[in-house]
Amino acid sequence: MSATKREEVSSHLRYIRLELRDMYQMLIKDDLLPDPSEAIELHAQLDALLNLLSDKGLKQVKTQYGKF
């Protein structure tokens, strides 16, 4: 993996980790569910990370939920 790609992956993982920590804090301490837009944004970050790591690109998967 090239250095720039490694940096991008590291950046995505840092962001995802912080967002998940915030959501966890909301759930445990405040008894609040995270805003759906936050979950959607986190999902998009995970998709971007997957695209960075896979050479083939993201395969479109049909789910029962469709697009958010």
Provide an overview of this structure:
The protein has 68 residues and is mainly α. It has one domain (3-53). Helix content is 65%, strand content 0%. It contains two helices and no strands. The protein has helices at residues 3-28, 36-53. α1 (3-28) runs antiparallel to α2 (36-53). The longest helix is centred in the first third of the chain and has 26 residues, at 3-28. It starts with a helix and ends in a 15-residue tail after the last helix. The model has no long low-confidence stretch (mean pLDDT 79).
Task: Measure the end-to-end span.
Answer: 32 Å
Order of helices and strands: HH
User: Which blocks of ≥5 consecutive residues have pLDDT under 50?
Assistant: none
Count every helix, treating DSSP H or I runs of 4 or more residues as helices. Answer: 2
- Structural class by SSE content: mainly alpha
According to DSSP, the number of beta strands is 0
Basic shape: elongated
| Largest beta-sheet characterization | none
Q: Kindly report the average pLDDT value.
A: 79
Query: What is the radius of gyration?
Result: 14 Å
Beta content comes to under 5%
Q: Tally the structural domains.
A: 1
Helical coverage, percent range: 55-70%
Summarize the structure.
The protein has 68 residues and is mainly alpha-helical. It has one domain (3-53). 65% of the residues lie in helices and 0% in strands.
